[in-house]
Structures are given as structure tokens and as C-alpha cells.
Amino acid sequence: MNTFTKLEHNDDHIHLAFSSPQRVISSAILNGGLIKADHIVNRKVPKHSSSCEAPEKSLSDYAKARGWQGHVVGMMTAASMSSLRIEQACVEGMNITVLVTTGISNARRAGDKADIQELLGTTGEVGTINLILIFSAQLTDAALVEAMMIATEAKAAALQNAKVLSPVSGFFATGTGTDAIAVVCSDDTQKIKFCGKHVLLGEWIGRLVIKAVTRSLKAEASV
Hints:
The chain has 223 residues and is of the alpha/beta class. It is 25% helix and 34% strand.
């Protein structure tokens, strides 16, 4: 019921290996943007680290050390890998898979005052809600962006339902300061052009992401 041939889940990472290169749009640290990827990894890192190594190099070296060949899309999180929750559905012959890990120690609301008040600044904050959406059908570039948008709205809705507050503004959080997302689709002949809230795919993206994030938040709270 998916386009990946291997899902590896342990205390150190969540690793997806694809049977063939898949189109991925992401905000990932390693190979973010729009690429063809052979792997996605969500790596667990310490909440406090003295390492000065660049995150993208750390992820690249981590993948090479494990022999993962081809292009690797890499995310990092301080969240426990036990917070992983997966939701799946088959909608009119298209398989949808949502994977999420959650850590909300740096919850924020969009528009909150930034911790780093410079455009090129970076942050050492940890927490992070990492989302991966996988579709067995082909999505246009515009549809991939739209799917990312709907998933982000659904994540925010789940946080509001759970009454997670931003410590900066005191209002409902819409995410954390370090969230990442990846949307994956195949080169299947079935081609999707639209996935907004007026169409069936948008409905299912919202449902599955809300359910996965809600379950993951509960798991994270129990760690």
C-alpha cells in the first residue's frame, strides 16, 4: 500500500528506501527543494550538542556510513522516534501514506517574534514536527505545493485541537520553529492536478495528517 520498498524504524532514525527514484518536494536540511530521491531519512539528534559540524554534512555522512546509495533527503529532530505515527488510506485506487514524528518544546505561532532578529541567522532550537506524505500517483509541481500547504494547515489544526500554546505569544501554536515536511509522489500514469480543500484528495490529506499528528502528540506526551 505504498511506493517505498523498505521502512526502517529504530531509536536513531526513520528511513524510507524507494524501489525507484521518486519526486520529492521538501523543506529538508539535506537535499531540500524539488528533486528525485532514492531515500528519505528522519534522524534523531541530541537536544543539546557541542558539535560544530554543519547539519547537512552530518546527515550526508550519516547516510554514506549506512551505504544508502543515490539521493537522500534528510531531516533532523530531537523528538523521540517512538513518537512515529503512520496513517494510510486508499482513495479511488491511489495510496496515501502519512508519517509524522513530533516534538513541541519550541512550539510557535506563525507571526510570533523571531528569536533570531537577522535574515541570515540560524537557530539551535530543538523540538520539531517532521511530516512525510507519500502518494502512489503522479502530482504536478503545483499539486505538490498545494499538498504541502494543506498538510501544513492540517498540522496547525491538530495543534489547535490539542490546545498547544506558543510560549512567545500565548496563542495557539501552528507548528514549531524547526518543522520540516516532505511530499513524495511517483511517476504513475495517474496524474493529479488539484488537491485543495474542495476536492477529495485535499479532504483526505487533511484527515490523515490531523489524525497522525494528534496520535503522535499523545505519544510524545507519554515519553
